[in-house]
Fold this sequence. Notes:
Helix content: 40-55%
Order of helices and strands: HEEHH
Low-confidence stretches: none
Structural class: alpha+beta
Strand order of the largest sheet: 1-2
Number of domains: 1
Mean pLDDT: 86
Shape: globular
Radius of gyration: 11 Å
Number of helices: 3
Amino acid sequence: MNSVMEIGETIVFLKDGLIAWEGGNKEIFKTDNEAVTDFVYSSDLFKKVRIAQNEGF
């Protein structure tokens, strides 16, 4: 996920072989798509990032 965030300009998230979400590396943190947020925030590091973002940091 770190590499995706650093080098990915356009990110496409597939679910069951279909495009479930498409956007940029900054937009991925703001999506309401539950499948995307579950995937992005599955690691402990990104769970901490999410908490910090929700607290306004």
